[in-house]
Amino acid sequence: QNAWKLADHPKLPKGKTIAMVVLDGWGEARPDEYNCIHVADTPTMDSFKTTAPEKWRLIKAHGSAVGLPSEDDMGNSEVGHNALGAGRIFAQGAKLVDSALASGKIYGGEGFKYIKQSFDNGTLHLIGLLSDGGVHSRLDQLQLLLKGAAEQGAKRIRVHFLTDGRDVLDGSSVGFLETLEKDMSNLREKGVDAQIASGGGRMYVTMDRYENDWNVVKRGWDAQVLGEAPYKFRNAVEAVKKLREEPKANDQYLPPFVIVDESGNPVGPIKDGDAVVTFNFRADRMTMLAKALEYADFDKFDRVRVPKIYYAGMLQYDGELKLPSQYLVSPPEIERTSGEYLVHNGVRTFACSETVKFGHVTFFWNGNRSGCFNEKMEEYVEIPSDVGITFNVQPKMKALEIAEKARDAILSGKFDQIRVNLPNGDMVGHTGDIEATVVACKAADEAVKTIIDAIEQVGGIYVITADHGNAEDMVKRDKSGEPQLDKSGKLQILTSHTLKPVPIAIGGPGLKAGTRFRNDVPTGGLANVAATVMNLHGFIAPDDYEPTLIEVVDN
Ligand code: 3PG
Ligand code: CO
């Protein structure tokens, strides 16, 4: 009990209403025509920087600052919200899987022993995202796992892949697939019956999140488990090339297909006695499939046939649900998050976003844990996202609705912290549609205005930041920062996140005079925000938290 008690901040009072706003995919980059935040009309976000520079700064949101393997790793929402909420930097899934593979420890673990039971008479199926994006999975990890599984005795292997185009350039799927094909053929030369069995685009097949649209998972189930899909091909590279020829086709949204043998039968449906590994390390877009694969009671769609399998995740995706129960690598243990501390110290919290980002300000924020810490102190509100569209056709998304919910929560006086995620810059940025992303950024800026106006009314404080970059750069660039053209002279659109830092601004009438950013934490990153917010609630953060970004000078 007492271990949760936070010390009082010597200078900052308790009881202020604090709006904690995360703009998803909102980084700081050079102001040119491919910087949608620069192009968009964003007076509110601009004003923080120009009118109160001592209360505005940039913080790191990528690479080691958020627990990723290298400085070449762009930030993402999982690691970003983990860092924001936890106040410390944890070695993340990508890194943990790297070391488990490098040391070989992965093969000695419970999870691997479990799936190994299929090796004598069954097939090992690997399902996941095929790219080197490093956000949900990595191709080189899949390659090592394939090699290792064969060495450990897997005799029949099937890969069910999802094309990316969201964390990597659109069209890069073909190259990744060719690499995979080569590995599969090497395995075959060594006597392993290894084949690619099915495929589809990540946003249309399998990788939905937060139960936005179960049809996405069903399409994958039909192809992967039942061996049924609208398209059948003899070869996976051919399949992707062919399907990409359709007008408007792209890697993210390729339809599902299965690979068939010479008699037209699917080469890799999942059967009794087989093993399945979902090789993504990131949770949000694998949890739904994990439920379909693991739960006996399941009513989200008709599974038709439920094979008795040995299923393991690359990681355990949900520590609270213990899902999946078997996994190859232990997930980071993100405990004692700021949310849990604050609840124990009397801070009442309201968290809100729309479905596609809802888990970011709840599940990820709380260290990959679903649900509230204390239902009497917390209220989590999810606004249903539009389903079945790409967000460039609806770039305003639910920004206004989220802002209004936040405003009402602020004015209600029932909460001390009102936490929201505004998805626009990220979700529309991922479509690669520059015009729509400009509209998206304006909508997010307007939402911020609504929220800070409410804070103004109640004498509160706002903290506005972002989880990683996206909308501030929409083209692939060369080393000097100039847009890079492809072989045919076309601009290469960047659908992914970036390596850019993100802004953080504090303000509002409740902010004690003399509060400003310290200048002795120049390398501050997202993990420094939790201690900062704890200070603003009137507390000092636990010793092992990354240092606060603020100081209070007497004037
Ligand atoms: C996605 O899952 O949509 C992308 O791979 C990463 O986006 P996010 O990290 O912003 O959710
Ligand atoms: Co994103």
UniProtKB/TrEMBL annotation:
Residues 16-539 form the Metalloenzyme domain. InterPro entries: Alkaline_phosphatase_core_sf (IPR017850), BPG-indep_PGM_N (IPR011258), Metalloenzyme (IPR006124), PGAM_B_sf (IPR036646), Pgm_bpd_ind (IPR005995). Its EC number is 5.4.2.12. Residues 98-318 form the BPG-independent PGAM N-terminal domain. Mn(2+) 1 binds at residues 426, 430, 497. Pfam families: iPGM_N, Metalloenzyme. This is 2,3-bisphosphoglycerate-independent phosphoglycerate mutase. It comes from Salix udensis.
